Amino acid sequence: MEEVTQLTPYQMLGGEAPLRHLVDRFYDIMDTDPRVLPLRQMHGPDLTPIRQKLFEFLSGWLGGPSLFIEKYGHPMLRARHMPFAVDEDARDQWLLCMYTAMDEVPMEQALRDHLEDAFFRTADFMRNR
Predict the structure, then answer these.
(1) Which InterPro entries match (predicted)?
(2) What average pLDDT does this structure show over 92-116?
(3) CA distance 103 to 30
(4) Is residue 4 part of a domain?
(5) pLDDT tier at 2 (50, 70, 90 boundaries)?
(6) What mean pLDDT, rounded, does the chain reach?
Protein backbone atom coordinates (compact mmCIF):
# COMPACT_ATOMS: atom_id res chain seq x y z
CA MET A 1 0.00 0.00 0.00
CA GLU A 2 1.35 3.42 -0.99
CA GLU A 3 1.97 5.95 1.78
CA VAL A 4 0.32 9.36 1.36
CA THR A 5 2.65 12.24 2.16
CA GLN A 6 1.03 15.46 3.35
CA LEU A 7 3.07 18.54 2.50
CA THR A 8 3.56 21.12 5.24
CA PRO A 9 2.82 24.78 4.55
CA TYR A 10 6.61 25.31 4.68
CA GLN A 11 7.08 22.80 1.86
CA MET A 12 4.10 24.16 -0.08
CA LEU A 13 5.60 27.65 0.14
CA GLY A 14 8.85 26.32 -1.30
CA GLY A 15 11.05 26.16 1.77
CA GLU A 16 13.72 28.48 3.10
CA ALA A 17 14.23 30.93 0.21
CA PRO A 18 10.56 31.91 -0.30
CA LEU A 19 10.07 32.14 3.47
CA ARG A 20 13.11 34.41 3.78
CA HIS A 21 11.71 36.57 0.97
CA LEU A 22 8.32 36.76 2.73
CA VAL A 23 9.90 37.88 6.00
CA ASP A 24 12.21 40.38 4.32
CA ARG A 25 9.33 41.94 2.39
CA PHE A 26 7.23 42.02 5.59
CA TYR A 27 9.85 44.11 7.36
CA ASP A 28 10.63 46.23 4.29
CA ILE A 29 6.94 47.16 4.15
CA MET A 30 6.83 47.82 7.89
CA ASP A 31 9.89 50.04 7.54
CA THR A 32 8.53 52.15 4.67
CA ASP A 33 4.71 52.20 4.67
CA PRO A 34 3.43 55.25 6.58
CA ARG A 35 0.15 53.42 7.32
CA VAL A 36 2.01 51.18 9.78
CA LEU A 37 4.21 53.79 11.47
CA PRO A 38 2.80 53.02 14.96
CA LEU A 39 3.70 49.33 14.46
CA ARG A 40 7.17 50.27 13.20
CA GLN A 41 7.70 52.42 16.27
CA MET A 42 7.18 49.38 18.52
CA HIS A 43 10.39 47.94 17.05
CA GLY A 44 13.98 48.99 17.58
CA PRO A 45 15.87 51.04 15.00
CA ASP A 46 17.59 47.94 13.57
CA LEU A 47 15.15 45.36 12.23
CA THR A 48 17.87 42.78 11.49
CA PRO A 49 17.52 40.76 14.72
CA ILE A 50 13.72 40.65 14.58
CA ARG A 51 13.80 39.66 10.89
CA GLN A 52 15.87 36.64 11.86
CA LYS A 53 13.61 35.76 14.79
CA LEU A 54 10.44 35.92 12.69
CA PHE A 55 12.09 33.82 9.99
CA GLU A 56 13.12 31.23 12.57
CA PHE A 57 9.69 31.23 14.20
CA LEU A 58 7.77 30.94 10.93
CA SER A 59 10.04 28.13 9.77
CA GLY A 60 8.87 25.89 12.60
CA TRP A 61 5.34 27.29 12.73
CA LEU A 62 4.86 26.38 9.08
CA GLY A 63 6.19 22.85 9.56
CA GLY A 64 9.81 23.36 8.57
CA PRO A 65 12.93 23.25 10.75
CA SER A 66 12.22 24.31 14.36
CA LEU A 67 14.93 26.99 14.35
CA PHE A 68 13.30 29.29 16.90
CA ILE A 69 12.63 26.56 19.45
CA GLU A 70 16.17 25.21 19.08
CA LYS A 71 17.59 28.67 19.90
CA TYR A 72 15.09 30.18 22.32
CA GLY A 73 12.79 27.42 23.55
CA HIS A 74 8.99 27.55 23.40
CA PRO A 75 7.82 30.68 21.54
CA MET A 76 5.39 31.83 24.28
CA LEU A 77 4.09 34.36 21.75
CA ARG A 78 1.59 36.08 23.98
CA ALA A 79 4.06 36.48 26.84
CA ARG A 80 6.76 37.80 24.50
CA HIS A 81 4.36 40.42 23.14
CA MET A 82 2.92 41.47 26.51
CA PRO A 83 5.33 44.43 26.95
CA PHE A 84 3.87 45.98 23.79
CA ALA A 85 0.44 47.58 23.45
CA VAL A 86 -1.09 45.25 20.89
CA ASP A 87 -4.58 46.46 20.06
CA GLU A 88 -6.77 45.98 16.99
CA ASP A 89 -4.89 48.72 15.12
CA ALA A 90 -1.52 47.06 15.78
CA ARG A 91 -2.98 43.69 14.75
CA ASP A 92 -4.36 45.15 11.54
CA GLN A 93 -1.10 46.95 10.74
CA TRP A 94 0.82 43.70 11.23
CA LEU A 95 -1.63 41.88 8.97
CA LEU A 96 -1.38 44.61 6.33
CA CYS A 97 2.39 44.11 6.21
CA MET A 98 2.07 40.31 6.06
CA TYR A 99 -0.74 40.16 3.51
CA THR A 100 1.08 42.69 1.28
CA ALA A 101 4.30 40.68 1.55
CA MET A 102 2.35 37.53 0.66
CA ASP A 103 1.28 39.23 -2.59
CA GLU A 104 4.92 39.02 -3.69
CA VAL A 105 5.49 35.35 -2.89
CA PRO A 106 4.00 32.93 -5.42
CA MET A 107 1.73 30.37 -3.77
CA GLU A 108 -1.38 28.34 -4.46
CA GLN A 109 -4.63 30.06 -3.49
CA ALA A 110 -5.45 27.29 -0.99
CA LEU A 111 -2.16 27.94 0.82
CA ARG A 112 -2.77 31.69 0.72
CA ASP A 113 -6.23 31.21 2.25
CA HIS A 114 -4.84 28.91 4.94
CA LEU A 115 -2.03 31.33 5.82
CA GLU A 116 -4.30 34.37 5.90
CA ASP A 117 -6.59 32.59 8.34
CA ALA A 118 -3.71 31.31 10.48
CA PHE A 119 -1.97 34.70 10.55
CA PHE A 120 -5.22 36.43 11.48
CA ARG A 121 -5.97 34.03 14.32
CA THR A 122 -2.42 34.31 15.66
CA ALA A 123 -2.26 38.11 15.34
CA ASP A 124 -5.66 38.44 16.97
CA PHE A 125 -4.49 36.23 19.85
CA MET A 126 -1.60 38.68 20.47
CA ARG A 127 -4.04 41.50 21.34
CA ASN A 128 -3.60 42.59 24.94
CA ARG A 129 -5.40 45.97 24.89
Answers:
(1) GlbO/GLB3-like, Globin-like_sf, Globin/Proto, Hemoglobin_trunc
(2) 97
(3) 15
(4) no
(5) low
(6) 95
Residue 5 per-residue DSSP state? P
For CA atoms 15, 18, 24, 28, the dihedral sign is: negative
The helix or strand, by DSSP H or E, that contains position 36, with its residue range, turns out to be: none
Q: In this structure, which amino acid lies at residue 112?
A: R
**What is the model's pLDDT at position 5?**
76
Q: Which amino acid is it at 2? A: E
Number of domains in the chain: 1
Estimate to the nearest angstrom the gap between the alpha carbon of 23 and the chain centroid.
7
Give pLDDT tens digits for 40-93. Answer: 999 999 999 999 999 999 999 999 999 999 999 999 999 999 999 999 999 999
